[in-house]
Amino acid sequence: MSESLAPPVWVHTDQSLRKMVADLSSQQRVAVDTESNSLHAYRERVCLIQFSTPKYDYVVDPLAFSDLRPLAPIFNDKKIEKIFHAAEYDLICLKRDYGFDLRNLFDTMQAARVLGYPAVGLDTLLAEKFGLKIDKRHQKADWGARPLTSAQINYARQDTHYLFALRDMLAAELRDMDRWDLALEDFARACRVDDAKEKLNGASWKRFSGRKDVNERDLTILAALCHSRDHIAETLDRPPFKVIDDNLLLEIAKRMPEKDVDLADIGLSPRQIRLWGGEMLAAVRRGAANPPVKLEQPKRPSDAVLRRAEKLKAWRKKVAQEIKVESDIVLPKFYLGLFAENPPKTLGELEEAMKDSPRRFQMYGSQILGLFGG
């Protein structure tokens, strides 16, 4: 596949938005992607939304609009198929920022996973299927910066332009391998996106709580350090790791420095020490004086639940190896916990529990029930 692409349509005015929405509304399917600024901001946001139709590529600038509600009917229209690649993160971001709900999804990455492709990145699939080489230089660009370069805009449009051809090729393979219904179940489940939890200043210390090399004292000091680092990051509107990365923060908690020279010995740069050294040292003193942090301990499953879970995992892995897919394609993770906690006693119970996965029930219901003696 070799072609010279016309410039994409840059959508940044109410008039251009209305024109694009009218075009999208008339389509049977559209390709969609987003770009966010998670590597460059404390609270990320959607900074570009790309749409493609068979005729046009559109690149929408969300930062130019106070209201993107005209797009909501496109996403919610079950008559218009929305083609994404690796939709999960995009759908979370669109739900978080705009409240968009999506119906009628085709996810080319999940389709490739259902088919058992060993590598499912878009650049890999486009190279394999069409001989295309996508320049990934802009993958980590600051999409919230303006103006964007023409190279960035062209990069963004490529993530949707080729999805129609890829979708059709993968759909044909799914039907040939009798896995079309499996993919449809996964697409429908992916559309059900929970509301994103708000990012709370200072709560990032909980990410360290599961590490075996962190004791209660370390964690208490880390809580104070994270609170200070998050406050700095939020003020500067940058990710916390761009203030002080996690490894250095952990070393500060463990070694409890008292002076700037101690911070330098840990590895902080002169600039970091000049800007934030005082706050880090104060956080160490505060954390050392604080009472131990309290963590909510997850309830340990019973031995019977753990045995059932292991039995399900072993069966799922064996089936997955036989048909050359990853284990969750045979049985999604959600069902592991559900059946381990509440093992079905009859085929009717299992069918009801798997009502959102009728094809998987048809294929594996008897085997699953047999694991529990049914």
Structure description:
By secondary structure, this protein is α/β, with parallel strands linked by helices. The chain folds into 3 domains: 9-190, Nucleotidyltransferase, domain 5 (2-Layer Sandwich); 203-289, HRDC domain (DNA polymerase, domain 1); 303-371, DNA polymerase, domain 1. Helix content is 52%, strand content 8%. The protein contains 17 helices and 6 strands. A 6-stranded mixed β-sheet has the order 1-4-3-2-5-6, sandwiched between helices. Helix 9 (216-236) packs across helix 12. It is globular and about 65 Å long.
What attributes characterize this protein structure?
single chain; alpha/beta; Nucleotidyltransferase, domain 5; DNA polymerase, domain 1; 3 domains; six-stranded mixed sheet; 17 helices; 6 strands; 52% helix
